[in-house]
Amino acid sequence: MRVLFMGTPVFAVNVLQGLIDHYEVIGVVTQPDKMVGRKQELKPSPVKELASKYSIPVLQPVKIREEYQDVLDFHPDIIITCAYGQIIPKEILDYPKYGCINVHASLLPKLRGGAPIHKAIINGYSKTGITIMYMDVGMDDGDIIKEREIPILDTDNLESLHDKLSILGKELLLETLPSILDGTNERIPQNKEEVTFAYNVTREEEHIDFSKSNREVFNLIRGLSPVPGSYANLFDHEIKIYEAKLCDKKYSSSKDGEIVELTKEGIVVACREGSIILTQLKPFGKKMMDASSYINGMKDKLMGQVFY
Fold first, then answer.
1. Is 245 part of any domain?
2. What is the rounded distance in angstroms from the CA atom of residue 41 to the CA atom of residue 153?
3. Cross-strand partners of 36
4. Are residues 223 and 296 in the same domain?
5. pLDDT, tens digit, 9 for 90 and up, residues 215-263
6. C-alpha distances in angstroms, 223 versus 17, 43, 108?
7. Are residues 163 and 240 in the same domain?
8. Residue 151 forms beta bridges with which residues?
């Protein structure tokens, strides 16, 4: 079995490690190195770092639709993809004997696209999961082989749910691969009427709108924490919000976004329905801190101010 893996971010590392432990991974395809940080240092993807550790050959095409021949030259029997980051051309999809298999972080046909974990939390889903699927030319629209779900808890944020799904993706792939190789797996077409999309989060979507319910605000904050983080403006500066708690108390005379109480837990802000307690934030030009620390330095100025 000649396995070729295609993936890029941290999410895909567990999946690649599982394949390395159990199969012959002949090559890895990942996104080109990127300039990161204030010093703009060239940094390889997490998948490339793992492949290099095991001396596995790595390809990094800028546009795989135009640079696919090197991939075919590996002569893979099967291609496994997980969060690769580019649309894979038909020339590659049609090549492997056992097909191209994708590990996707949602219960398809819900949440096709590049941000399924973010959007599962932001949209208030009670559960999500992993889908093992055959790849097709459309975005995440191939036949489903196997799915497994997990609950989304109020204590989950983007980071914790990401880590759970990454482990589940590895486990479900390794459990499913034997049936793919011996031809006994299921192949279930997706129901087109149930399709939803999870496009990458835009800058506009990161802004907190306190005219929404406290539950919607809560979901947005944890669905973007810790990266990129949601934000609101106060004193003409952007404040990043990373953690919050729900509060059912409604302050009848308050405006949406108004700071209505300062407690040991944090800053209580009025929403359209109920209120929310901001517990961890990053003021403009400062480091991340507990809201209680921010209150100590700004106590006389905060009450009655409105986030916008």
1. yes
2. 37
3. 41
4. yes
5. 999 999 999 999 999 999 999 999 999 999 999 888 888 899 999 999 9
6. 26, 26, 19
7. no
8. 127
